[in-house]
Amino acid sequence: MAIITISRGSLSGGRAVAECLAEHLGVPCVAREILQEAALSLGVSEQAMHEEFETTPGRWARLHQERETYLLAVRSALADRCVDGRLVYHGLAGQFLLRGVRGVLSVRLIAPLELRIQALVKQHHRMSGAAGQEFIANVDEERRRWVRELYGEDVEDPSLYDLTVKLRAMSLDTACTAIAEAAAQSEYEVTAEVKAGLEAFAATCRQALETRMARA
Amino acid sequence: MAACLAEQLGYRSVGREVLQDAAERLGVSAELLEQKMSGRPSLWSRFSSMRRAYIVAVQAALAERAVEGDLVYHGLAGGLLLGRVPGTLRIRLIAPLEHRVRAVMAESEMDAATAERYIRDVDAARARWVKAMYGVDIMDPRLYDMVIRLDPMTVAGACAVVAKVVAQPEFALTDDVRAALRDFLTACRVKLALVGETELRALDLDVSVEGGVVEVTGVAPLLKNGSVGNRIVELAHGIPGVEQVRLKVEWFDPYP
Q1: Do the beta carbons of residue B37 and residue B54 sit within 8 Å?
Q2: Tens digit of pLDDT for each residue in B63-122?
Q3: Which residues of A touch B (CB under 8 A)?
C-alpha cells in the first residue's frame, strides 16, 4: 500500500511515471478525476473548475472566496481517495493538499527543457522549437505564480518533496523503480494508525468543505 | 549515508581523503586547502590563478579515485568536479535544520544557538564557493539526479533508494563508462600539469580527452617564439596515455 503524489512541470513525463508506479504497486492512478469529483460535489462544471485552477493570480485574488471553496473541494476529493492508503496522484498541488499527512510520499519530477520541448513539438507538429520553449516557459511561470500566490512557496523548492528526481541520465523506468523503492520503506507504510489518520484527515476535509458551503 | 551505500554496494567511500591527496600533490596542508576551497569569493578573486590550481588538484585527486568506478564520494561539489562524466549518480541530501542542529550538538559541545549559527555559516560558505566557482546555486535541484529529504525518510531508506537506482542499467560500469573515466582522468592530469607551470596557471584553458587525443581550448598569448603552445603540447605529451595533442586555442597578441 502506498500514497504517492507526483508534481512536475508540463511535459515532464509525470503521467508516464505515475502510470508505471500505479501498475508496479497495483494501486489506482488519478489526476483529473479529482477535479471532476470536486466539481461534482460543488455542482459546477469540470471546465469551470479547471479554468479557475488555471487562472492567473490577479484574477484569483478577486475570486478569493470561490477559490478557497474550490481548493477545499479538491482537497476533500483527494483525501477521500486516500483513505484506503492506495493511490498515485499526479494532478495539481498534491504536495500542498496532502502536506503533513503521514504515509504520503511526495515526489517532484524534473525533466530537461530540451526533452520537454521535443515532447511538445512531437504533439504539435507545426510548432517550432522556439515557440515550444516559449510556451513551456510561460506555463512554468504561470504555475510558479499560482503556487506562490496560493501557498507562498516556490514549486521547485526541493525541501517541499521527499524525493526530487531528474529525468536526464535517469530513465522513466528507473525513476519509477526509485520511487517505488522509497514508497516501500517503513516510513511510508500505511499502518492501521496511519490509516486512522487518513480517515480523520478526510473527515476534517469534508467538514471544512461543508462548513464553507453552508456559509456560502 | 555514504558509509551505508559503500557497505551495501561493496564500493569504496571517500570524502576528505580526496582533499588530502590534492594537498599532498600541491605541497600544502589539507587544512589550508580546505580553507581555500570554502573561502569567500572576494578573497578568492585575489588569488584566481592559485584557485584554479587548487580546484584542478582536487578534481584530479577525485578522478584518480574514481577511475576504477565503484566509488561513493561525499565531499564538496562532487557532481560539479566530475563534470559530465557518464555513469555518475549525483545525489543531494537535505535535512530539516532542527535535525542538523541536534546532530551537531551530539557531536560537539555547542549549544543549540551556536550549532544553528555554525550550520548556517558552513552552508553559506559552501553556497558562495559553488556560486563563485561554477556560477550555479548549490540548492538548485537540477544539478542532481536525485534530491532526498531526510524527513521522514531515514538514512537507511534513502540508502536503499540510491542503491536501487545505482543497480539500474544507465548507471552500470560499462566499457564505455570505463573509457570515459580514463579520458577524464587523463584530462585532469593534463590540466594539473598545465597549472603546475607558473606562466600557464593564469590562462583560461580547458582540456578534454577522447581515446588518447587531447584537445586544449581557451585563450592564450601568442609569443613570437611559440613558447606557450610548445609548452602546452610538451606537458600534455608527458602524461601517460596521451597519443595526440590538438591545440584549439585562441591566440592573442600580448604586445599589440
Answers
A1: yes
A2: 999 999 999 999 888 989 998 899 999 999 999 999 999 999 999 999 999 999 999 999
A3: 102, 108, 110, 156, 158-159, 161-166, 168-171, 173-174, 177-178, 181-182, 185-188
